[in-house]
Amino acid sequence: MAKTASRLTALYGGTFDPIHYGHLKPVEALAKQVALHQVTIMPNNVPPHRAQPLANSEQRKTMVELAITGNALFKLDDRELQRETPSYTVETLEQLRSEIGAEQPLAFIVGQDSLLSLQRWYRWETLLTLCHLLVCQRPGYSLSMNTPEEQQWLDAHQTTSVEELHNQPAGKIYLAQTPMYDISATAIRRRLEQHLPCDDLLPAAVAEFIRQHHLYC
Ligand code: ATP
Predict the structure, then answer these.
(1) Is 42 touching ligand 1 by the criterion CB < 6 Å?
(2) Are strands 106-111 and 9-14 parallel, antiparallel or unpaired?
(3) Which residue, judged by its Cα, is nearest atom 14 of ligand 1?
(4) Would the ipTM clear 0.95, i.e. be above it?
(5) Per DSSP, what are the bridge partners of residue 76?
(6) Domain assignments of the chain as residue spans, ordered by start
(7) Ligand 1: which residue has its CA nearest to atom 8?
(8) 124 and 91 Cβ atoms separated by less than 8 Å
(9) Which of 76, 101, 184, 201 is the most interior residue, by most CB within 10 Å?
């Protein structure tokens, strides 16, 4: 394991409007479980048919930077924010694959809620040809899939072997035992709108940035 541990890297996509401890803490625990040395946070450019973020791209990017300063596990990649077009995970993964080659193990991290809706993502069938999926638990979301077909798909790809994640480039789904944080960006935005405190829900530097820029109120 130690010989291959540094090879697996992971991407973590999302709106991050704003980034909060429900994003960061489960992923820190996941990283320990599967020996991830680096997680690249990639804020996305939201497709027009979805609810648009309240904070603009630059603000969401800055909040991620503030949240991960001094934490060597995380780095930021703002390539999706640089594009004019909406972000489709599959296209970003294809781009990354062409950069790192076919053999490098690559993972994409999602929360349990995202796994449950994954089959609605653009070209979802292609995702596992490009990466593994690492899934963090999230309170309130079922551990089983919505339909027998979806469950079959999960069963066919699920692994409990960390070795497999490191030794194969893509194709596996790993359901991690991560601590549950009942936090969502939606709930934080609502609390801020009502001028309720959020200081235990997100890093202090992010809370301060939100205050300074009068975001979400
Ligand atoms: P919103 O409330 O605006 O929909 P969110 O809090 O769900 O946002 P996103 O930026 O949409 O956050 O999520 C990015 C990724 O983080 C997704 O894969 C999501 O499943 C995961 N995630 C977000 N919050 C949690 C949490 N509390 N526990 C585990 N995973 C989470």
Answers:
(1) no
(2) parallel
(3) 14
(4) yes
(5) 41
(6) 9-181
(7) 185
(8) no
(9) 201
